[in-house]
Each structure stands twice: as structure tokens, then as C-alpha cells.
Amino acid sequence: MTDTMFRPAPILPADAPLADWLAARRRGIGGSDIAAIVGVSKYAGPTKVYYDKLGVLPDEDNAAMERGRRVEKADRLKFADEHPELYVTDGPGLVAHPDRPIQLATIDGIAAEGPNSPPLAIVEVKTGSSRDPEWGEESTDEVPLPYLCQVTWYLDVFGLDVGYLAVLLDGRDYREYQIDYDAQLAAKLRGHAEAFWFRHVLAQVAPDADGLESTAQVLASQHNPKLTSEGQLDADVVGWAQIYGNAHRDEQAAADRKQEAGNHLRAAFIAAGSPHIGLVGDRKIANFSKSNPKPVVEFDTNRFAAEHPELFAAYTSTRTPEPQRRLTVSKEFTG
Q1: Do 182 and 215 touch, CB atoms closer than 8 A?
Q2: pLDDT tens, position by position, 244-270
Q3: pTM above 0.70, yes or no
Q4: Among 20, 24, 105, 207, which residue's CB has the most CB atoms within a 10 Å radius?
């Protein structure tokens, strides 16, 4: 259990402009950051959080995220309908722990016994896929580890003991999970967050890289070399270059093996009279299908520009694409 319930320090109301939200979130560690910092998120790691806190990454908000917010609003209302014994309201906006200002929280909802009663629990809403094996039995705390960390972080900020996770899987499977406050986990999360904040963000020392695609994208976005310029790298990168080269060779060899195996399968289908489904006895081996494409309407840009130059000029514009960054290790490591 938490030591006591207290009122978090308000930072921004829920209806504050998005730009203000994004700026305020950079002043501390939020619930969506903590899983990345401790290394349990598949989508972001410490490197992305670090550069985000420095304010050098573009703000993230897109149509998919906006749709997600709309779905989450509906699911919070669904949770309230399922629990008439609780008085469920929207979260209070962006808040911080009263004694640890870098510990931020933005919860979806809060549950109490009545409109003037103290809060009993937080309510978080998520969407996901039932194919994710981390979703366990309903009403348990068997949820993906990033969400367990997030809810624990929020409970620690609010001084509450219970968090409800209302989840919509595959757009139709509504479930509820209950996460009880774990003091040991909360202490570990605080320790990681404080170390990250002081050793990396405030000191402006980047954390060690990891194997996430988002890390590759963030690091590439920060790389702006002068053409043909040279620089001395740390000596330990020789080992990483060797690992990279070995993986490159293994990847190419695997691609060659896959291509050869696929060609043998294709030849077997032809020899069998070109069936759609290939069997050996009663055992299904593979499908070899042929698509039925629909006609494609094509626009003759060159002809339109020649016959209607003024219209073409009025509806075209010039855009400079984002530069591509390509990492190529020396042939010493890939040969």
C-alpha cells in the first residue's frame, strides 16, 4: 500500500493547448516515459526519451493518435457504465508528485464513491490486440509490462492503492484489469527515473543505445555530417562494427537460402499442374496464389503539363524531402 493519499501538484488543466502539454511534459518523467526508460517498451527506449526531453525531436501527434484519444474517451464512459457504484470523472490534467516534481502523471480518469468523496482509484484506458500474449485473464493484473509500469507510476504520484485498466482489444473485446500498488516496483521505477534524469537529461549525456527501430530513427535524425568529414570514434565501436558485419552476412545468407527454398516450392507447384494449395498427402504445405488486380487509373502528368501549363503550375509545389541517413560499415567487416 502507499504510505498515504495526497493531492498531486497541478501543472496543466486537461483542456490546455496541445503545445503547452508537449512542452510541460519535457520537464519531467511521465507514465508513458517510464517503460521506455526501464527498457520494457517495444516502441521507445531511453535514447528517444532523452532527446525528447532535450526538445530536439519534433512533436508527435497524428491522426492515429487523435483517433486513439476518441476511442479512449468512449471506453472511459463504458467503464463508468459498468461501475454504477463508482463516480468516475476525467483525469485532472497534468500533475506532479508534491515532493518529486519530475514525477509526472496524466491519467484518463479517477474513481470515487461520490462527487465530493476522495478518490479511490485511477482509471486508465488502452486499446490493443488480443494476439498480444501479455494480456491475461480479465480482472487480474496480467497486462503488458509497459502498462503495469505506467499504472504503478501513476498510483505512486496520486498516493492511491488501486488502478483500473479498461481495455478494448481488436476494436470489440472490452476487458477490465485491476492493478494494485506495488511499493517495491514503484521504488525501482523512481530509482531508474531519477538516475536517468540526473545522469542523462540534466547532464546532457546520452544513454547507451539499444536495438529498437525508434532509436535508429532518433539517432539518424541527430546526425548532420559535413560531406567527406572525418572524426575519431570510441575504440569499442570496432566490436559493434564486427557484430554488424557478421549480422549483415548472416542476413544475406538467410535471404539467399529463403530464395532458393521458395524457388524449389514454386517449381513443385508448376510440376503439380499449378494448384492454388499444395499438399503432401493430407498435409498442407503452402499456397501459391495469383492476384486479380483491378484496373488502375493513371494520370499523364507530362501531357497535362504540356497542354495546361498554367493549371499545372497553379497546383504544383516544390518540397525538399527529409535527408536520408545511411550507415555503411567498412568492407573489412562485411567481406
Answers
A1: no
A2: 999 999 999 999 999 999 999 999 999
A3: yes
A4: 105
